[in-house]
Specification:
Elements: E1 4-9, E2 12-17, H1 30-43, E3 49-54, E4 58-60, H2 79-98, E5 102-107, E6 110-112, H3 113-121, E7 124-128, E8 132-134, H4 148-156, H5 158-167, E9 171-172, H6 173-178, E10 184-186, H7 188-203, H8 207-219, H9 225-240, H10 243-254
Parallel strand pairs: 2-3, 3-5, 4-6, 5-7, 6-8, 7-10
Antiparallel strand pairs: 1-2, 8-9
Helix pairs in contact: 1-2, 3-4, 4-5, 8-9
Length: about 260
């Protein structure tokens, strides 16, 4: 059985982390399979939305400490080799954040360490009522990987991010919602129904506009206000020239649902 299950249908790719006996910790073949699935999704023009979730009771518990310190990334190999290998797997977070698709974490259970970083790299997060969150790295004698120290301050603010990393206390889904880390908290049995509803809604939007909005938001993290205005103006006017923009305006006037074709 693969450690990552992949399904693509109706513009939505669903990646299910599949080591339920280990709370979907990043051991076995999960990392190469996750990277392959995420790269595949990023390159697929038919996919508009990626949903990341976990099988069983966990979303992802981070590195599998049963495989050694840092989840088995150490060993006797030269440190440069270890760093290169880890950075290769960390491309998963980079793609979740940067790919021209909307990425959604459906946090169904334990979400810790690098799994927490994966969730933070997604554009949107929804959680089951029983989900538990933890940065966890300090508890494992580690400094953090998969980008959480970069994404979390931008999601909840620098002070709260420092608290969550330095005190490393677990917190429930209700607190994740209170601090703005997740958009909604749902009964576990209703989590995927709601996430799939949101994903379908997004997949039905104008694809060029959806990509452009995500690009604008990502640009805002690194550009000056003036530079961001330049990018906004260019993307906005290019979007105005698309058939989809014409269709949206026509549908609004005719009081009907638009039909977008991605041109």
């Amino acid at each position: 059985m693969p450690d990552v299950l992949y399904e693509a249908k109706d513009g939505i790719a669903t990646l299910t982390l599949n080591r339920p006996d280990r709370l979907n910790a990043m051991g076995g073949e999960m990392l190469p399979e996750a990277l392959d699935a995420i790269e595949r999704t990023a390159a697929d023009d038919d996919v508009k939305v990626l949903v990341l979730t976990g099988a069983g009771r966990g979303f992802c518990a981070g590195g599998d400490l049963s495989e050694g310190a840092g989840g088995g990334f150490g060993g006797d190999r030269p440190i440069d080799t270890q760093v290169r290998e880890l950075r290769t797997w960390m491309r998963t977070s980079q793609l979740l954040h940067e790919m021209p698709k909307v990425t959604i974490a459906a946090v169904n259970g334990a979400c810790a360490g690098a799994g927490f970083s994966w969730a933070c790299a997604c554009d949107l997060r929804f959680a089951a009522e029983g989900a538990k969150f933890s940065t966890a790295f300090l508890n494992a004698g580690l400094t953090g990987d998969f980008g959480g120290t970069w994404t979390l301050p931008r999601l909840v603010g620098p002070a709260k991010a420092r608290e969550l990393y330095l005190l490393s206390a677990p917190f429930p889904a209700a607190e994740a919602h209170r601090i703005g880390l997740v958009s909604e908290v749902l009964p576990k049995e209703g989590l995927m129904t709601r996430v799939n509803e949101i994903a379908a809604q997004l997949a039905g939007r104008a694809p060029i506009a959806l990509r452009g909005i995500k690009q604008n938001l990502n640009d805002s993290l690194r550009l000056s206000f003036s530079e961001a205005l330049d990018r906004e103006a260019e993307r906005h006017q290019r979007a105005c020239q698309t058939e989809d923009a014409t269709e949206a305006a026509r549908a609004f006037i005719e009081k009907r649902a638009p039909h977008f074709i991605g041109r």
